[in-house]
């Protein structure tokens, strides 16, 4: 056949943070097909539909192939890279001259390679003088990051995927891996211990249907329920006092705090029974290896950080950490969310250092060979504060890389107005057609996954390679090459002389990581990462001196030592806060949003380009409503309904289901209009948007 491959190579998938290994089938140096990699320790030969279609979405008519400049009539003109980067530099510099260096900011992503994130963050903050920059990881992982840092002393998901198979009890809180992380769910299905599966979720999700216990709480009662379970664990004698005494602080305060969360009081408000709470506590308390997992139901909440810490507390007080099958485990969303957490130079100084720490700034300056004065001394604004800065005319120019805020940001109508308010908006993306690109003054065409090299870091801390197996279309360049161009046109060739290619930057990252919990200085080179099926951090020179090849599955905290100065984990609890927008007579339905399908990814920019993936998902937006509510509105399955919140109104098809309770509704985030409805409200510690609690009204259309 003309499509027969002449060689193969491997690369990690570029959609979700599971990080499945794919084998790419090459002909004449170009990938012509792919299959899941059977030897990869993550996916063991499996892939979800998105992974199978990873190459198909590269061939699309709306790929950005030329730099595009906005014309006065509103259209775009293709221009050369020289014109585009001259304009980029002139416009941003003139804004800075007029309004100050802090008046331009960037919004990046969990979708580009770690080396590109490191380069972008260093270029923007050390070279171009920006102070404010954030990533779309604010929308998915900020809560877990904050929770881990406060509880463990470092943003350190402790687990390895083998834990899915080693647990005899798995607890999923606000997490639906059947849909969100299907290959992780496959790992659960490989568990031969007949585990108890406890799901805490207001919807009867696919995962809840497979659970042995489903605590179908009213939305946003998760913190109360977790405290009630903690109270029962303490009262019923399941605490591992030896572990608590040796390895944690704050147990007495926790005990006193949760004593007020009686089963009777919590059952009444949360919609689950006292017996369910007690049964869950008994199960967690008596099983040998309990792992607790959470995703966006927890993270995307106005009290997400404390909820995540309530999960961490349960793992700690029962001694379920550091052993096979245990852990308080945040599952990451995007393919390289962790790259953003460690390397984007946003919330943390590059390499998870601190902007406010003079010693850290000196170390970074020394390792990168730059002046310490070029490093900001304060943390920049989070995403929401950057948007607020636009409103207040303090941010006048914005550089958006591989993310789509005009679709995905909370209270979308307001977000779009703010993008239009900017003096200059640059969008760097692989497609020219995203909702955000429609607002751009300049579009920079970027190569995609499969068209460039670098590393991604998955949910279990595994560095893996992405590879150039296709040529990018037209004039599109890798984000790395675009950054090299920006550095040149900005006059920063000298500062970034060492940042020549992704592997050179990886070596800089290794130097920066020395002495950090995320130390990767023991990795030899990219080839070793490839040979080993990825390498989980930490892998320091000391680790490497004791063992040539890292074990394929490694977890943290086997020695009970955490990253605070006293080496103990902190047990943290706080008062439950009221829901910011409760339902009322005018808006009587609580709307939740989330992932709706295995076949679509986030704002569908890539996955909608695959005819196969499109067929697996309804084209029209839909809203899941309960059978009783549908009957009272005289609405049948498939009828159009109008969904209205205080912020916007849209039409969607009714999907009448028993899986959401009466008075609740669910809309997938993949549809463009969904965030017209959502409430702009944030976790006070992580600044993560609370996407899952907007009061709406639903009417027959
Ligand atoms: Fe890719 Fe995630 Fe699907 Fe694996 S589960 S194939 S990483 S999208």
Automatic annotation (TrEMBL):
GO terms for molecular function: 4 iron, 4 sulfur cluster binding; metal ion binding; molybdopterin cofactor binding; oxidoreductase activity. PROSITE patterns: 4FE4S_MOW_BIS_MGD, MOLYBDOPTERIN_PROK_1, MOLYBDOPTERIN_PROK_2. The keyword RNA-binding does not apply. It comes from the Bacteria. Its EC number is 1.7.99.4. One of its GO terms (biological process) is cellular respiration. GO terms for cellular component: membrane. InterPro entries: Asp_de-COase-like_dom_sf, MoPterin_dinucl-bd_dom, Mopterin_OxRdtase, Mopterin_OxRdtase_4Fe-4S_dom, Mopterin_OxRdtase_prok_CS, MopterinOxRdtase_cofactor_BS, Prok_molybdopt-oxidoreductase. Residues 6-62 form the 4Fe-4S Mo/W bis-MGD-type domain. Keywords: 4Fe-4S, Iron, Iron-sulfur, Metal-binding, Oxidoreductase. It is an enzyme of class 1 (oxidoreductase). CDD domains: MopB_CT_Fdh-Nap-like, MopB_Nitrate-R-NapA-like. This is Nitrate reductase. The gene is narB.
